[in-house]
Amino acid sequence: MKRNILTLISIFSFVLFSFSQELISKDELRLKSNLSERRESIPIVNSLSNELSLFIADRKDIYFNKYNSGFEIIDQQKFERPKSKAKNILEKVNPGENEYLFLLSNDSKKKLELLKIDTKEAKIKLITTPILSETERFLKAFIYKNQIFILAIPKKTSILNIHKIKPNGEKETLTYDLTNEEFFDKYDKITSLYKSFLISQGGPSKAIFDTEYIEDDIPNSLEVTSKPTKLYKRDNSIIVTLDNGNKYTQVLTLNLDVANYKISNIEKPVLQDINRNNKIFIKSNSFLSRNRLYQIIGIRGQMKFKATNLTSNEIVKEIALERKDTITFKNTPIIQEGAMYNGYREMEKTQKFLRKIASGKIGVSAHYIKDTIQLTLGGVKEIRAGGVPMVGFGGVGGAAIGMTNAFVTPTYYAYASYASTISTRIHCLFDEQMSHLEGEVPTNAFDKIKDFSEDIYNEKAETVFKFNGYYVYGYYDSLLHKYFLRKFED
Q1: Collapsing DSSP states into helix, strand and coil, what is residue 351?
Q2: Position with higher pLDDT, 21 vs 23
Q3: What distance in Å separates the CA atoms of residue 103 and residue 292, rounded to the nearest whole number?
Q4: 490 vs 339, 368, 428, 472, CA distance in Å?
């Protein structure tokens, strides 16, 4: 009886939202596993041909769908799920018409492997040839020109290696020697680039790195942007921002075609009445969007913000906020959201806002909706539970705390963090010249997806990705035995 009621609810929800959201694909699919963490969706968009493929992994099998421009399935296959000790997917690409390449790793990311799927020959091949040397540490993987690139650093150096992975598993390496450059630790003392990337030693033999890949054209939560080391892709370059110290944001640009680099030190705003006793409590961070660097710095009782044009080095906007001030530039109440406070509550006092953001990790994000910049300022506190399903072809599920070792699309990662935020924040609206705008904060695509998904009772294998300028929300309905793709826009 209960199952019949759930089925009716699911069908009713599906019918209701079919009229309010654009359904772009609905396909029959019967996954066998009853464990939701064993079900995973991995979309692959060919950056050259703009073709969409979708891999849906179950406990034992991988289902493959390839779509034409009308979202009709033009190829559909099933593969046996491979067994490997490298269980986590770091990146994936469609380098040829019928070829798919996945970069896999173990939890420490010291062991990297390649999984190659040929849909024409219906074959899977595991390539175990070592990619990194014993002295290299993995920093991040990303896609450029439909090819997997790996950013790595030799231990205790200021040298960066970028490995280009070819479809046959061979690699080509670009080396950037930054030995003569100065980098800074959290105390603003000169250190190596290796230590600038290092988040924590984690014990005498376990170095921890956590470089965040940022798509700056989507809504990013403070959980994402509060990371001190971030990587952005721009044309034929990547940009790495380092915010370990509180004096500068270091902006490192690496050319992906030749081993050239550029480094800039952008001064952060200076707080008042800082001395040797309270200096250690300063928190700072930055966010890069459309060649403009947004910086935030704070300590209990005060916060400062600055926006800088990186082309001209012109300061576009500065804001100083103290506990006695009224926040005149916000367009929402002070929002505190998270499990500790039963989901959501609002605060009024600036003093509380400043105290909360200084007690955790501080962050800033910017999102453009047409000609309006939605700026989010605030801070987050880490929790030790939750997260989204870990994605991997190795057959091991489970919740990924903070999604540290999981692969999800950068867009889905941003969405999942956005939809389950644990933060204290304000949202502000500005025009291109950074003049404050009155009015309500507009609803973005992530808000719409979140509202839609809350009325689905049995969604599994979720994903969110950008395609042709809009957002696609994919999910498997285990009662209807169908996989849905739906279109959302800001």
Answers
A1: helix
A2: 23
A3: 32
A4: 27, 10, 17, 12
Q: Treating both helix axes as pointing N-terminal to C-terminal, what angle do 445-453 and 410-419 enclose, rounded to 10 degrees?
A: 70
**How far is Cα 141 from Cα 171, in angstroms, rounded to an integer?**
14
Q: Which residues 6+ apart lie within 8 Å of 70 measured at CB?
A: none
The bridge status of strand 302-309 relative to strand 361-369 is unpaired
Are residues 230 and 222 in contact, defined by beta-carbon separation less than 8 angstroms?
no
Name the average pLDDT for the chain. Answer: 86
Of 83, 5, 100, residue with least CA distance to 46: 100
> Residue 76 region, left (φ>0) first, then alpha (ψ -120 to 50), else beta?
beta
Looking up tokens 């605030």 gives 378
Give the type of residue at 429.
Answer: L
**How far is the C-alpha of 26 from the C-alpha of 33, rounded, in Å?**
20
Q: Could you tell me where the DSSP H helices lie in 359-462?
A: 410-419, 445-453
Pairing of strands 183-184, 171-177: unpaired
Distances (CA, A) of 213 to 88, 90, 139, 231, 303: 17, 11, 10, 5, 26
> Strand, coil or helix: what is 234?
strand
Strands across the sheet with 99-105, in order?
Answer: 88-96, 99-105, 112-118, 123-127
Tokens of 20: 């309010």
Percent of the chain with pLDDT over 70: 86
Q: What is the DSSP letter of 38?
A: G
Q: Which residue has the tokens 């100065």?
A: 182
Give tens-digit pLDDT for 151-173. Answer: 999 999 999 999 999 988 899 99
Q: Tell me, what amino acid is at 389? A: P
* Token code pair at residue 344: 């959501």
- The one-letter amino acid at 40: E
Q: Are 141 and 126 in contact (CB under 8 A)?
A: no
In the block, residue with structure tokens 């359904």 = 23
**Helical (H) or strand (E) element with 14:** helix 2-20
**Closest Cα partner for 57 from 394, 453, 415?**
394
Query: Does position 273 have pLDDT exceeding 80, yes or no?
Result: yes
Whose structure tokens read 């020697």? 177
The string of pLDDT tens digits covering residues 432-473 is: 999 999 999 999 999 999 999 988 878 888 999 999 989 999
> What whole-number distance in Å separates Cα of residue 74 and Cα of residue 77?
10
Check residue 374 and give its pLDDT.
97
- Count of Cβ atoms closer than 10 Å to residue 322 Cβ: 13
Give pLDDT, residue 106.
87
pLDDT band at 15; cut points 50, 70, 90: very low
Express each pLDDT in 334-360 by its tens digit.
Answer: 999 875 545 788 998 999 999 999 999
